[in-house]
């Protein structure tokens, strides 16, 4: 009996890749700022820190993520069927993202890892970089996505362009549901034979 092995294939989206690159740039800028400002962490905690605290990298990353995601939610995800429901879930997700970023920022001060100034500067830098990166991606890179996705190396790596799909979440959901139903019908018909 011949054993069939399945390779796990991972595909990526140009938008996801550019978001990841933006997150790496955000972290790099945080390291540069920490070494330029060179402000130590609060001493109340009693521990010795080898890393500077200004700006807070946790706060900066969370606000980068929240601001980029909220802009993505507003400008990139559109579903036409029910405007009121779309608006409601967008508001709920946006509030959730902002709340999560605020909780992380507060927790850094509460746990005495950072001062309020360190956390607030991290939040401001993160928001600026998140908004700026969103503009760069959607003004400069998005028009190039179809061309990049057609390169042979991208086809081999299964890097795709979804920039023309108005709501990628709905698209993925409906296609997965359709495929699952088709496979289920095929399995059922094979069993009945």
From TrEMBL:
Q: Which GO terms describe its cellular component?
A: endoplasmic reticulum membrane
* GO BP, sorted A to Z: lipid biosynthetic process; protein N-linked glycosylation
Looking at the UniProt entry, the stretches that span the membrane are: 62-81, 87-107, 119-141
Quote the catalytic activity from the record.
a di-trans,poly-cis-dolichyl diphosphate + H2O = a di-trans,poly-cis-dolichyl phosphate + phosphate + H(+)
SMART domains (alphabetical) = acidPPc
* Enzyme Commission code(s) on record: 3.6.1.43
Query: Per the similarity annotation, which family is this?
Result: Belongs to the dolichyldiphosphatase family.
Q: What's the protein called, per UniProt? A: Dolichyldiphosphatase
């Amino acid at each position: 009996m011949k054993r069939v092995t399945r390779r796990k294939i991972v595909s990526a989206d140009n938008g996801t890749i550019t978001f990841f690159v933006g997150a790496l740039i955000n972290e790099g800028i945080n390291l540069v700022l920490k070494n330029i400002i060179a402000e130590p962490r609060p001493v109340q905690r009693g521990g010795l820190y080898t890393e500077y605290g200004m700006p807070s990298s946790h706060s900066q990353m969370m606000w980068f993520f929240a601001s980029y995601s909220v802009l993505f939610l507003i400008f990139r995800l559109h579903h036409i069927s029910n405007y009121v429901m779309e608006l409601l879930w967008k508001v709920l997700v946006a509030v959730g993202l902002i709340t999560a970023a605020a909780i992380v920022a507060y927790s850094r001060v509460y746990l005495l890892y950072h001062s309020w100034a360190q956390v607030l500067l991290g939040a401001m830098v993160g928001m600026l970089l998140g908004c700026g990166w969103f503009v760069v991606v959607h003004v400069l890179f998005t028009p190039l996505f179809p061309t990049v996705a057609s390169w042979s190396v991208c086809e081999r790596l299964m890097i795709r362009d979804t920039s023309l799909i108005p709501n990628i979440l709905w698209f993925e959901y409906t296609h997965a549901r359709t495929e699952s139903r088709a496979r289920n019908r095929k399995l059922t018909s094979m069993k009945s034979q």
